[in-house]
Amino acid sequence: MGFREIAQIAGSAMTAQSTRLNTVASNLANAGAAASSETEAYKARKPVFAAVMGQSSLESYAARVQVLDVLETTEPVRKAHEPENPVADASGYVYYSNVNTVAEMTDMMSASRAFETNVEVLGRVRSMQQSLLRLGEQS
User: Fold this and answer.
1) What is the C-alpha separation between 39 and 41, in angstroms, rounded?
2) Across residues 10-20, what is the average pLDDT?
3) How far is it between the farthest Cα atoms of the chain?
4) Would the CA dihedral through 37, 106, 73, 18 be positive or negative?
5) Among residues 51, 45, 44, which one has the least CA distance to residue 16?
6) pLDDT digits (tens, 9 = 90+) for 106-129
7) What span, in angstroms and rounded, lies between the C-alpha atoms of 15 and 11?
């Protein structure tokens, strides 16, 4: 596997982790959102990733991470009886998002660390390339 393929994998992984961080930010921003019906309530979203493997045109094995979709979670929304709330339905119920803030913060830390790891990989690839060029200069 060459430097280009390594950089492609790390770059696509960084893009995937950026998507993951954006969905976490969206979920956290809407964690306390209230709605007057279950269908209107914000539902947490999660990205779906896939490892894509294939032959590149240069006869080397190409790989990357691809974001397939961002799906809503299936966990039920929280229902609370708050007749004084302005968004309450006719029965006095308010529907809150199904976002679990602790899980989202954990996911954010994991995505952030994965992004940092891929940045380190790209830095090491660059360092190895520079070392290889210096070897060529000394010959």
Assistant:
1) 6
2) 95
3) 83
4) positive
5) 51
6) 999 999 999 999 999 999 999 988
7) 6
83 CB contacts (<8 Å, ≥6 apart)? 92
Q: pLDDT of 49-86, one tens digit each?
A: 999 887 655 545 678 899 999 999 999 999 999 999 99
- Where in the chain are the domains? 3-32+44-76+98-138
CA-closest candidate to residue 99, choices 28, 40, 48: 28
Is-contact 118 17, C-beta < 8 A? Answer: yes
Alpha-carbon distance values, 114 to 73, 95, 118 (Å): 22, 34, 6
